[in-house]
Amino acid sequence: TIKCKNIHLTLDDVLNEVMDKLTGQQSNLRIIPIVGMGGIGKTTLARNAYVKFMKHFDIRAWVTVSQNYNVREILIEILLCINKAESRETLSAKSEGELGVKVHQSLWGRRYLIVMDDIWSVEVWDKVNLFFPDNVGQRSRIMITTRLSDVASIGSHGVVMDFLNEDKSWDLLCKSILEEEEECPPELEEIGKKIAKNCEGLPLSIVVIGGHLAKSKRTREHWEYVSENIKKIVNSEDDERCLKVLQLSYNHLPVHLKPCFLYMGVFPEDKKIRVSWLVKLWVSEVFVKPIKGKSLEVVSREYLQELCDRNLILVHERGSYGNIKFCKIHDLLRELCLREAEKEKFLYVKRPHELTIPYGISTHRRIGIHQSMSEKDYHPDPVLRTLQYVPLVRSLICNFEERLPLLDFRLLRVLKVDDKKSYFDNNRQYEYSVEVVFRLVNLRFIAIRSDLPDPPIGGKDDEFVLGNLQTLTYIRNFKCGEEVVKRIPNINKLQISYFEEPQGFLSYCLDNLDHLHKLESLRFSLYSKNKHLVQNFILPNSLKKLTLWGTMLKWDDMKTKIGLLPSLQVLKLKASSFVGTEWETIEGQFCNLRYLLIRSCRDLEWWTTDSNHFPRLEHLHLQFLDKLKEIPSCIGEISTLQSIELISCSKLAVISAKQILKEQEDFGNVDFRAQVFVAKPMRFPNFIRETW
């Protein structure tokens, strides 16, 4: 619960929404859920509405349910609110059934408002809702507050509480610090707004920080200190009030979700996390339990959805299919992850400005090290030295400029080393030791910005086989030799990039990609003027997702290299992946393609196709095609097509997209949508969206 003078002014918009639902014309009983993350102001909102409508209802009752609920206690609290003359002792002597009947009789024929605050399960609702009469015509209402989306499904058209924007955050911070008519001193306004922003829109955090500032000296120096130490202050004020509120959500997690949530702490602060990677990491860590008839990745995505439904993980961006593409975690929840993980020795993450790693981490199985861009005095040597003493580590997720030495990490399952700065520097040595890489036999996920060496010469066929490896990304100049391919037989996702080499690409055998029979996702990037490399590559029939960049293939190559792939569902053609003015498709190809992106293939003028050439296409995205004369009108005849999106394409392409939309509307296809994003003429374009 957030207590703060005038806080309801900050919630005016959402309060008006609740008021509309409370006073609406729906004559029978209406359930109004208020759902959101812990500390976001659900109880405050419900309390403000409860007080505001004191005279609108004949009967009002407020009951706090909490995790360890008791149905008898809930019914007793409701009866004590209904009739102040009742005594707890008398009611406590009655059975649950007798109390339920008494509640039903007390509410029958009356207009009532009941608030059930802090519900943690549908089960408790199922046990008490039969005691609440419908009272048709009376317009009775029940408000429930919850952190869980499945509980919110009890009612319809609920209220989803979102984070405050920067203006409202600043407004709330001022109300928490200043007296009613007092104004913020001008010299503190700029730093004050920074403090409000750093609270990331969570009202509880803002109020706690405001309480701290109200009790301390109003100097710029102190406010600057606060702005740089938000989490530290929030987590220490009021007997760790913030963390205790958020801790309830963690405590309520089922056992199988707790490690997945704690693992979120391994990612850097404010990091948007790619979901396709996250679910693979959870699988690699063996957090995901098999379910008959479902792949582990499907189950892993279900785990993610459940954590989002519990408002512990935030959806940052959705993909074309409505699936979660990127997610994030609020800083305070990340802090909770780190505290719990440290307590349980589940995970160690190097804190900002820690120059060394404590030697006590030698027994840790998961380690995260992230060099902040602001760490000017960062010295990697002590950190790297300490990593020599972590023989039990199973997961290493690192981000710093120095290349991570791969030691004898025999138990290592996950290796993710991010070094974007040096990735494109061809003067640096990238290749890891052959003996080390191919002895890490437990590896399941590798993301290293490095060349992958050839396996040791002379080994037996079953030696140096990375049989558990499923994800291999960021790899430079992957030679794809027969010996390498033979030793990564179960690879599922592969991201490879090629750079100019003095020796050329004669030793590269990309026709061996065809032998990766379990490969489902391939991203292939070519940063070289030598385009002969891709002329011989052969793709496996297992491929479901393909992304190409810089390959400069001819459109006719599409028929022989890509169109016939039977399982391909997602095809992303990025900058200069194909060259030529005309693309003509043929029947019998792209049988399962759902999503097609063509971006910056700037030569393309004419696209000749037919609706039966893409029989299952759902989404078509065209970007930076400034010469394209039109989108073929037959594209609109594809029965499965749901959307067309254009970004900075030619005017003729836009006109043809509008024509397709009009034809679909004429045919009664109201669900079809088309969007156009027009780039402003700037170095880094902003986009103006036009939606029809």
From TrEMBL:
GO BP term, pick one: defense response to virus
Record function comment: Confers resistance to late blight (Phytophthora infestans) races carrying the avirulence gene Avr1. Resistance proteins guard the plant against pathogens that contain an appropriate avirulence protein via an indirect interaction with this avirulence protein. That triggers a defense system including the hypersensitive response, which restricts the pathogen growth.
Sample GO molecular function, one term: ADP binding
Domain Disease resistance protein winged helix, chain residue ranges per copy: 266-336
Family the entry assigns: Belongs to the disease resistance NB-LRR family.
GO cellular component: cytoplasm
Organism encoding this protein: Erythranthe guttata (Yellow monkey flower)
Entry superkingdom: Eukaryota
Family matches, as PANTHER family: AAA+ ATPASE DOMAIN-CONTAINING PROTEIN (PTHR23155:SF1152), DISEASE RESISTANCE PROTEIN RP (PTHR23155)
Keywords of the record: ATP-binding, Cytoplasm, Hypersensitive response, Leucine-rich repeat, Nucleotide-binding, Plant defense, Repeat
Protein name, entry field: Uncharacterized protein
ATP-binding is among the record's keywords: yes
Lineage start: Eukaryota, Viridiplantae, Streptophyta, Embryophyta, Tracheophyta
Domain NB-ARC: 13-181
Locations listed in the record: Cytoplasm
